[in-house]
Amino acid sequence: MSEQDRHIRDLAGTLPVANIGDAMERLNVVDSGIRPMWPGARLVGRAFTVMTAGGDNKAIHEALDHAGPGDVLVINGQGATHRALIGELIAGRAAAQGVVGFVIDGAIRDVRDLEEMRFPVFARAVTPAGPYRNGPGYHQKPVALGGVVVNPGDLVVADDDGVAVVPRDAEADVLARAVAKHEQELAQRDGVPAPSGI
Ligand SMILES: O=C([O-])CC(=O)C(=O)O
Ligand SMILES: [Mg+2]
Question: Over the stretch 134-158, which tens digit does the pLDDT of each residue have?
């Protein structure tokens, strides 16, 4: 990881995702149905994209043969919520490789374990029903994620509010604008008198 890349990730990690969205004209924010799977989950990383058939995780196993430190698996699971695409075992394998989290348009399971592991996962649903492993699928091509196009290497930032995707070629400008917005909001908050009666 280059010095510049480290700086970008560290900076993104200090900013509310809401302000990062604001800095992209409030676009590139992922559908609100994709939620943190435990309170306080947050992540910053580079998209390692996966497309997989609904309820089937073969492509995720294949992607994990290649994903590495600092990557976020961004998985288009066709929005299917009838089968969990990952759980604590796949998350453990990913974490051991340095993968920083998953963002999934689909369902997951083993949420209690994921919280105990402090492994951030953002997904559409939880179900105990396990996945099949037949394919089809692929990785590291552009994918759709909750209405947003994600290219491999894009910056993915997620917190309690949800997920934003920053196109790689725009990230320095977007983060600079997000810093300005955040500072302006903090100043505004400080300047606002407390509501009466408190
Ligand atoms: O069985 C699976 O493929 C999903 C799962 O629960 C795990 O990764 O722990
Ligand atoms: Mg499991």
Answer: 999 999 999 999 999 999 999 999 9
Ligand 1 atom with the shortest distance to the CA of 133: 3
> Is 97 within a domain?
yes
pLDDT digits (tens, 9 = 90+) for 91-117: 999 999 999 999 999 999 999 999 999
Can you give the CATH number for the domain in which 18 is found? 3.50.30.40
Q: How many domains does the chain have?
A: 1
Dist. CA 144 → ligand 2 center (Å): 26
Q: How is residue 66 annotated by DSSP?
A: T
89 CA distance to ligand 1 middle (Å):
6
Q: Does residue 133 belong to any structural domain of this protein?
A: yes
